[in-house]
Amino acid sequence: MMENNTYFNHPIPPFDEAKPKVADMREYVTSNPLTVHKDGLFLRTNMLPMASTAVVAGNPFILSEWNEYGVNPFHSTAFISMAAYACLNEWDGLIVYCYHTSESWNGQPADEITNIFDAYNDPSLICQFGFMAALFLGDLVRPAEHRVDLVFTQNDLKTLPPAFSMPNAYLPYITSLRNVFLDQGDAYTGDADVAVTAGFVNNGDLSQAKRAVYYAWSPYRDALRHANGEGRLERLAAKADEELPGAKLGDRILVFNEIAPLAGERRLHYVCRKPGCALKRWGLLPDDRGLVGSALVSDTGELAFDPKAGTFRIRTEGCSYFSGDPSDGIALTKDYFPFSYQPSHLSGIAACKRHFRRMLRNLPFDGPRPHRHGRNHLYHGRLIYDCRFSGEAVRGHPGRNLVRALQVRNAYCSGHGGHANRQHRMRSCS
Predict the structure, then answer these.
(1) pLDDT at 367
(2) Does residue 203 surpass a pLDDT of 50?
(3) Which end of the chain is more exposed for a tag (fewer CB within 10 A), N or C?
(4) 165 with 213: CB under 8 angstroms?
(5) What H or E segment, with its residue span, contains residue 407?
(6) How does residue 42 score in pLDDT terms, banded at 50, 70 and 90?
(7) pLDDT higher for 271 or 246?
């Protein structure tokens, strides 16, 4: 059994519960994993890349301690995101730290958040537990269609380049990633769809892999720099037939001649487009999967994370989820929002609007019952503001009408980031 701990926006020790300090607190949904973070304090990347460094082929994996500590409007996105990507990568367990940190059953109040580590009274987290469980235990998100092995030789383990986790910043968002540690020799004999050399030194042998990606941070074949690997990558690149900037691509091989100049600080997105090109040429990724613009789209097409736009979505056969700041507002259509109740007497937009609001009032609530503020209503702990219906009623068959779209121009979300009574203004609702 393998396990790992990972955090995002973790407070700096020594911990002061009254006033925790977080260096460079960031928004999870806009934090780009392809950016190399160097602030001298903590590894400044997302939880998925950090957690995936401990996933070992052939062993169960549990993320045994993890959390996101933030007071940002989209603080809650991190938890659904981790549950979804754990499904994509076929992890075996997720344990959020911590439900309740006090050692006394009555040590902390139920109606006030006094500890940043607690989940039990944080509405932005505890109210998502049911959905997170449904995602992870109910197989609402499909496992990846392919598997990539990141291969370490014994000499790789004796050194550590600065950007050692470069493949982890991209691959687990796209497909299933496992680490393989070679006990004997330098030759990989696994059956993954793609094998990627860890490349700490220049010695991994992937000749028996179905498809291989080669690069090396060091020109030497061993950690003690006794054996020079000069010319090795060039000889491997001779098997490729397509020139890419800084790399060569063939039917079964991708070779980076020099990885360091390409993967300089804040340029991992440039490097990661090359494996994307390779996976598409090898028939493992359609054109609309992988790194598409600034979005990381899974090989299943079900998950899409766009840190530049600040959006994360899940769209599967049995589940749809969105969080972030959409540039064009939010539209609910008949394709993605089935009405649970459609009386046959509905006719026209005005009647559909009344029916939609009546249906919202019947939904279960995360918090108190709705408070009326003119035409504004508080639903699911969120104040939906300025709801405008657009389009005409869509007639499915005689006597049935649907509203084509509901656009939420502005919204206020309450209960985010550990402040149950604090409201954060956003341009659109999550």
Answers:
(1) 40
(2) yes
(3) N
(4) no
(5) strand 405-414
(6) very low
(7) 246
What pairs with residue 93 in β-bridges? 62
Q: How many other C-beta atoms are found inside a 10 Å radius of the C-beta of residue 235? A: 9
Amino acid making up residue 248:
K
Smallest CA-to-CA distance from 167 within 62, 79, 85, 48 is with: 48
Q: What is the pLDDT of residue 268?
A: 61
**What is the distance between the alpha carbons of residues 68 and 128, in angstroms, rounded to a whole number?**
14
Q: Which amino acid is residue 162, in one-letter code?
A: P
CA distance 83 to 136: 6
* Contact residues for 392 (Cβ-Cβ < 8 A; gap 6+): 349, 404
Dihedral (CA of 367, 369, 373, 376) sign: positive
**Between 28 and 333, the higher pLDDT residue:** 28
Cite the beta strand spans of 48-109 per DSSP E: 61-68, 93-96
Q: Which two tokens stand for residue 39?
A: 């602030």
Distance CA 237, CA 200 (A): 18
Q: Given a cut of 60, is residue 307 above it in pLDDT? A: yes
Q: Which residues contact 103 (CB under 8 A, 6 or more apart)?
A: none
8 A C-beta contact, residue 382 and residue 410: no
Structure tokens at 421: 């009574």
Cα-only R_g, the chain: 24
Element (H, E) at 350: helix 348-361
Q: Is the peptide bond before 167 cis (omega within 30 degrees of 0)?
A: no
